[in-house]
Write a structure and sequence with these properties.
Number of strands: 7
Strand order of the largest sheet: 1-2-3-4-5
Shape: globular
Strand content: 15-25%
């Protein structure tokens, strides 16, 4: 009888402990999801230049994303079959003036997965921004892919029109690295990160893959509309 009471006591304690852990996990999952959603929303506002996130409240950022960024369309890369979410950013909630398109990129860096967005102008000829949403690269080295010096060339405009046969859309290195640098109007190069060669190479691979997929998907949409 005493042994049975001991077993029942242990079962009850285990059940209560399990319920507590489960409840804590579920509540933390919701918090993490909300935090991740806000991080993405803030990044999109910065990506498209829709406001100063340092002065905007969480609610204001959410309103801007909901009202000025259309996420209703998905493109398809005919070569891989990959579905590409298309973002359309407008200067006001009325959607009178399209200011840029955006699409995601992702891949494995030196340590782990890297996710972000590329913004391109309304004519689909050059980049107008780049934002890394999540990464686990080495702080002070590969982790610098989020810093202004790395993303600045993308904000200033890198050429994403079709490159010469066999060439890349984007090149990592100093001006002149690209075989068609300066032609047509925009260059194609961005700086590597000193001391983070593998992260830099990984970013080059995933950005080129994302731009290539996006351009094929855009051409596929145009062909389907004809």
């Amino acid at each position: 009888m005493k042994r049975l009471k001991t077993v029942l006591f242990m079962v009850v304690i285990a059940a209560l402990y399990g319920a507590g852990v489960t409840g804590l996990h579920l509540s933390s999952v919701k918090t993490v999801e909300e935090n991740n959603r806000f991080i993405e929303q803030k990044a999109l506002v910065e990506l498209f230049g829709l406001g100063d996130v340092k002065t905007l409240s969480k609610e204001e950022i959410n309103t801007i994303v909901q009202n000025q960024i259309d996420r209703s369309e998905t493109l398809t890369d005919p070569q891989t079959g990959k579905k590409i979410p298309l973002l359309k950013a407008y200067d006001t909630a009325k959607h009178d003036n399209l200011i840029a398109y955006g699409f995601p990129f992702s891949g494995i860096g030196f340590w782990d997965r890297i996710d972000g967005y590329i913004a391109v102008d309304s004519e689909l000829k050059k980049t107008v921004g780049l934002k890394v949403i999540s990464q686990s690269e080495t702080p002070g080295l590969g982790g610098r892919i989020e810093e202004p010096f790395f993303v600045k060339p993308f904000a200033e405009g890198l050429n994403i029109t079709a490159p010469k046969s066999g060439g890349n859309y984007l090149y990592m290195g100093s001006p002149g690295t690209s075989p068609d640098e300066g032609t047509p109007q925009y260059g194609r190069t961005f700086d590597a990160i000193t001391g983070a060669t593998q992260t830099s190479l990984a970013m080059s691979r995933m950005l080129n893959a994302a731009v290539a997929e996006f351009n094929r998907a855009v051409e596929n949409r145009k062909a389907g509309a004809q």
